[in-house]
Task: inverse folding
């Protein structure tokens, strides 16, 4: 995520567009609002920031003391819509649109395979337990089927393993993607699983006992039949976590893009383009202009994308400014 959350990368992208289009651009350092004038049009773009507290990340719209990074300007306030707030509603949308998604069960007695337990409301990979094997004797973490809480309704979801996919859209157009395999450890014939995990976490400034992800790491090991005391054979590889964004590696600041969209094969790209069309058709009924959103999924071994959730307020990758400004100022953007 380091490329996306580096403030200078956002400045570079905005400046490049401004230079090419001879636009007037001003930054209010107190509010971090960005004012842009071009082609006799004027817009104020509002900032978004990334915060971190007690090992968990969140978004903010002000430069608070907890802010760790800047994640973009957009020409509208924070948006929320039902499909982005409720994963179960998003599944209904996907079903109606003819798109692939993992099954959901509201009773553990109905579970028909490997599964996770999720809250219908939640983001950043929080409020997710598992993965578990069917019949593992798991109970609802919060104490009851169909229990409604501030976070939402708990449900069991079919666990589909594969490669994590996150795609950013402006309207119907996909312009950025991450394709992230699960983070793994590789055996050397001597070290225990715990030692290998500790070594990887230490590189990211964490420890197994101190990480907020310990329950998910443990569940991932159990799911694969591994124990912390096991010694993996030379070259034997197992994964540590299944959630997007958990790389467990130090990411250095860089101006080099990590956009994987051009690397995606035609089969997967067709599925990406299709969900973009379906989402844009849905959102045009809510908003008068294109909006930014990101969709998370997992690509299985056969190349099928299983869509998981949609985020209405994601980071704006720097490459997105040219697309956003085209919507605001026209194709050329020249004054």
Result:
């Amino acid at each position: 995520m380091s490329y996306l959350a580096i403030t200078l990368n956002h400045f570079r992208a905005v400046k490049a567009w401004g230079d090419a289009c001879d636009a007037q651009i001003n930054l209010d350092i107190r509010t971090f609002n960005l004012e842009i004038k071009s082609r006799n049009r004027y817009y104020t773009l509002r900032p978004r920031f990334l915060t971190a507290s007690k090992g968990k990340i969140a978004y903010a719209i002000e430069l608070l003391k907890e802010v760790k990074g800047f994640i973009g300007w957009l020409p509208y306030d924070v948006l929320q819509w039902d499909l982005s707030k409720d994963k179960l509603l998003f599944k209904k949308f996907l079903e109606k649109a003819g798109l692939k998604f993992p099954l959901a069960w509201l009773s553990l007695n109905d579970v028909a395979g490997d599964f996770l337990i999720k809250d219908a409301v939640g983001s950043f990979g929080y409020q997710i337990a598992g993965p578990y094997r069917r019949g593992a004797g798991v109970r609802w973490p919060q104490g009851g089927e169909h229990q409604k809480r501030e976070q939402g309704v708990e449900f069991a979801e079919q666990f589909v393993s594969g490669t994590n996919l996150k795609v950013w859209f402006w309207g119907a157009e996909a312009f950025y993607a991450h394709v992230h395999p699960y983070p793994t450890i590789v055996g050397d014939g001597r070290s225990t699983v715990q030692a290998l995990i500790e070594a990887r976490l230490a590189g990211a400034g964490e420890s197994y006992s101190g990480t907020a992800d310990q329950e998910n790491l443990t569940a991932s090991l159990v799911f694969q039949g591994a124990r912390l005391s096991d010694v993996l054979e030379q070259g034997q590889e197992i994964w540590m976590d299944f959630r997007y964004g958990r790389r467990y590696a130090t990411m250095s600041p860089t101006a080099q893009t990590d956009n994987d969209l051009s690397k995606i094969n035609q089969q997967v790209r067709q599925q990406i383009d299709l969900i973009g069309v379906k989402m844009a058709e849905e959102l045009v009924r809510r908003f008068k202009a294109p909006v930014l959103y990101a969709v998370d999924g997992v690509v299985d071994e056969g190349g099928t994308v299983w869509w998981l959730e949609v985020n209405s307020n994601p980071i704006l990758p720097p490459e997105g400014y040219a697309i956003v400004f085209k919507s605001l100022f026209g194709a050329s953007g020249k004054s």
